[in-house]
Design goal:
- The structure is a single chain.
- The chain is built from three helices and two strands, in the order ββααα.
- With 62 residues, it is α+β, with helices and mostly antiparallel strands.
- The protein has a single domain, classed as Arc Repressor Mutant, subunit A (Orthogonal Bundle).
- A two-stranded antiparallel ribbon has the order 1-2.
């Protein structure tokens, strides 16, 4: 699995989340599917980086 994503049964009911946040991956995908841009997501979630959202975080690949 990609190191940018974590699954912890003690956090967010075990949903896949962006590492270091309580932000479920499905929420990001839903927002993008509904027309939000990466810029919108960066404004809404400042703790998440552009590299993580765009998949360019080279150090996180397993």
């Amino acid at each position: 699995m990609d190191k940018r994503i974590t699954i912890d049964p003690k956090a967010c009911h075990g949903q896949a989340c962006i590492r270091g946040t309580r932000l479920p991956v499905h929420q990001i995908l839903q927002m993008l599917a509904n027309g939000d841009t990466i810029e919108d997501l960066l404004q809404e979630y400042p703790s998440v980086t552009r590299e993580v959202l765009s998949g360019e975080d080279k150090d996180s690949q397993s």
